[in-house]
TrEMBL record:
Spans traversing the lipid bilayer: none
Protein name, entry field: Alcohol dehydrogenase class IV
Domain Alcohol dehydrogenase iron-type/glycerol dehydrogenase GldA span(s) in chain numbering: 9-175
UniProt KW keywords: NAD, Oxidoreductase
Amino acid sequence: MTFEFATATRIIFGAGTAQQLPALARQLGKKILVVTGNDPSRQYPLLAKIEAAGLEVTTFPIATEPTVDDVRRGASVALQCGMDAVIGLGGGSAVDAGKAIAAMARQPRDVLHYLEVIGDGYPLDEKSLPFIAVPTTAGTGAEVTRNAVLVSPDHGIKASLRHASMLPGIALIDPELALGCPADITAASGMDALTQCLEAYVSCRAQPMTDALCVDGIRRAVRSLEKVVKDGQDLKAREDLALAAMFSGMALANAGLGAVHAFAAPIGGSYKAAHGAVCAALLAPVWEVNWAAAQRNGHAEAKEKFESAARLLMSDEKATPMDACEYLGELTCRLQIPGLGSHGIVESAFEDIATKAARASSMKGNPVPLSHEELLTILWEAL
């Protein structure tokens, strides 16, 4: 057995740890670019403390999921202003954008030279600027991954910028920062974390360290997701989701994902749809089709993983993968997350989505090969 495991250089976790951010940033230099979500005012209390520590702060808000052009603009700002470091402060989009901007600020070529799938996919020429990830939602686990997912509207797809130097130097995870997160965002983000734990667990690239993280992440997400959607001030439940998200990020960075996220790449690139909501709509249909394919093709290891995951999800030693499929569908309904049709996706788009999903980097981790017809079946079931 051989495997590799990499994650953020330093992880600081716990309620109230965000108060350490000014001191941590000060260690990296004087000029700090802070990448936030669409409304930087939500982060003003923390930004004010960073400025009070004697640092020069420039904010760079991201309206939606980061695009290739967002990263170009952000890298230009970082370069022109002589930034010493970058902080990604916000949801997964802000963290991914900050990570990509920190990377591209030091590169001699355009982002498409390095971007996977739609670009040339070359490794970075230079190391990233120092980067601190501070998530305010619990979902993508971007605070501990080596890639940043970017939207290319011109290509109608999302693709990754990826390099080992993009692993954050510090991941600062304070569950208190998510206490004000709305219920719908909490639900969608939480389902993304659960999906990532499940996909990494059954991935054909899974290994013992990622398995251990996924097992604990699945348990935490299952016991706390619905609790925190009902009561957003439940700090214990917020801690569980923050850990599940972090574990899912560690796992996906080392074991890959699967068909759910392969579909999310073209859907997120062509439709204004929240990533977590898309993943939630796809999870049960992908699970069912993957399980059927594993049985039909005699993939013993995949079958064993699906059976084990079902027992984890249901907290029942007698639970089957089809029981788990039913549970995942019901969970999505209870969380009031709609199907793909609510995002404007129609049957006429299925061929293009399925073709692009088959080429997405996430499909490399799917536990079993899926035919084009099986991909279309998933889209029908998720509609």
